[in-house]
């Protein structure tokens, strides 16, 4: 089953995937209990709050969240119903649309953030020394670049 | 929003969470395309294949997968319908039940594993040097222990 990964690398992969899934499950439960937000809600609020004009095109948002277009439509319409975001047509391209952070969305994010940051510190970041922080940053930035490049390559028409 | 994490640690957390979510999404798509298994299906097959007698109590399986009892019931009944696992009452405790790997489940795992291991190597493990493997193993084993301890503490009655 595992013949092509060394025991050290298999142990590494398993520790990473099992602990990360456990962390993401707890993070989701913790956010919901504290602020009635899912992690996807929170992530959308953060991305919009940092974007110029607090707005992003739907396609850009889908790509940042790694969501399919239909999953993003569902996500944004759920957040629209709760008043956290609005949806507007793009000024530059009338066929496209953008998600826009509302004032209520910004206030919700500001209320949720301190608790969420405490969760992140208590559960992971305060446990790491500076060398581990540097190692994780390096490994996961490389991983992100590789996965984005693979996605871009697979969505480029073959004749280009 | 981020006053209590240093810029280095915030960059680390973001690289970790965004790249990991991107990786887990791709891993799920890749497994489904190659073998019609979800990652949860695959994980259940691996855990059962490694357990004594290829069987695990439902409670133990829920804990290993970080699934609620209802989510595990749904997961196992979906795998039962596809013939990958069977469900039996525990020999030791007639009220409890166990999931048991079927021969079809083992064959499915054996067919899926080489492709999945290649995915894991290509997308993450072959990119890491030995020092990075050691760092990730150390960090994520500590994280797993901490999260399990927190869960055990919160499920212990207060008067014990």
UniProtKB/TrEMBL annotation, chains A, B:
Pfam families: MarR_2
Signal peptide: none
Classification via InterPro entries: HTH_MarR-typ, MarR/SlyA-like, WH-like_DNA-bd_sf, WH_DNA-bd_sf
Name used for this protein in its record: Transcriptional regulator, MarR family
Gene Ontology biological-process annotations: response to stress
Gene3D superfamilies: Winged helix-like DNA-binding domain superfamily/Winged helix DNA-binding domain (1.10.10.10)
Domain HTH marR-type: 1-145
Annotated GO MF terms: DNA-binding transcription factor activity
SUPFAM superfamilies referenced in this protein's UniProt entry, alphabetically: Winged helix' DNA-binding domain
């Amino acid at each position: 089953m595992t013949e092509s990964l060394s025991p050290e690398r298999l142990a590494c992969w398993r520790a990473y995937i099992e602990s990360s899934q456990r962390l993401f499950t707890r993070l989701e439960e913790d956010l919901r209990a504290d602020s009635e937000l899912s992690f996807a809600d929170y992530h959308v609020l953060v991305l919009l709050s940092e974007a110029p004009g607090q707005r992003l095109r739907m396609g850009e948002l889908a790509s940042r969240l790694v969501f399919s277009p239909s999953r993003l439509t569902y996500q944004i319409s759920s957040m629209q119903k709760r008043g956290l975001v609005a949806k507007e047509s793009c000024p530059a391209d009338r066929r496209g649309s953008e998600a826009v952070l509302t004032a209520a969305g910004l206030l919700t994010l500001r209320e949720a953030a301190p608790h969420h940051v405490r969760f992140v510190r208590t559960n992971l970041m305060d446990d790491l020394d500076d060398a581990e922080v540097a190692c994780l940053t390096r490994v996961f930035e490389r991983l992100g670049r590789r996965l984005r490049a693979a996605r871009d390559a697979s969505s480029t028409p073959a004749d280009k």
